[in-house]
Amino acid sequence: MYSSSPNVVMMSTCTPARAGSRAIISADCATAATMGQLATHKDKAKSRSMRLTAHTEVLVEVKPQALDLYRAGEAKLHAGQFAEGLALLRRAGDLGDAQAMLALGEIYSQDGEGHIYDEKEAMRWYRKAAEAGNREGMLNVGGFYDAGIGVPESDELAVEWYRKASKLGSPQATYDLARKYESGRGVPRDLAKACELYQRAARMGYAEADSRLAHAGCK
Predict the structure, then answer these.
(1) What is the pLDDT of residue 30?
(2) Residue 156 CA neighbour count, 13 Å, CB half
């Protein structure tokens, strides 16, 4: 649904996009309704997108050239111009482009030309995406806390971020949250809850959930 104002877009739902190819903590898809979009990658120019939920409307300010900077940065990376590409992605991320934030998290999660492996910097960019409402960012923040990457290991914080991503429809976050309930790490052990979450993840198409259902003794 769209407003008659040329600068305001009314969106009634969030559409997930496929994750970038570089993610290390397996991100199944990106959220929508955050400042860079995520419906197939971000695509607003100086517009304010409005996300509607059942009971509330949220205004998200989107900076003008963030998408162009993100695309230019990706093009530079693909052309082997790593320093320039990284600088452009950082500018896009600072302007609020969620895909740029995710790309930077992925980049700093591994060694490569033009940058060095930096767990804390990776976590910083994933957290920025997560705090902007991006479910892939939430999933990765949960994974970093789960494994103690760039931050002290914390089952409780991993559960918190997995739960947030799961509520936004992330199949892997739902599966990872089920594992926590099955093991009792970060939450009281609850096999019934674990089975419920495994079944939900399986319905979402997360293949590992099917095998886990039998392993956990779920009916």
Answers:
(1) 35
(2) 1
Domain hosting residue 57, numbered range: 8-134
With contact defined as beta carbons under 8 Å apart, do 216 and 191 qualify? yes
Q: Is residue 141 part of a domain?
A: no
CATH number for position 26: 1.25.40.10
How many domains in the chain?
Answer: 1
CA-to-CA distance for 146 and 158, rounded, in angstroms?
A: 5
Closest CA to 200 of 171, 165, 159: 171
Q: What is the DSSP string of 178-208?
A: HHHHHHTSSS---HHHHHHHHHHHHHTT-HH
Q: Half-sphere exposure of 143 toward its Cβ, with a 13 Å CA cutoff?
A: 27
* Beta carbons within 8 Å of 216's beta carbon, 6+ residues apart: 182, 191, 194, 195, 198
- Which tens digits make up the pLDDT trace of 97-147? 999 999 999 999 988 776 789 999 999 999 999 999 999 999 999 999 999
Closest CA to 164 of 148, 145, 182: 145
Asked if 102 and 126 touch (Cβ cutoff 8 Å), the reply is: yes
The pTM assigned to this predicted structure is 0.70
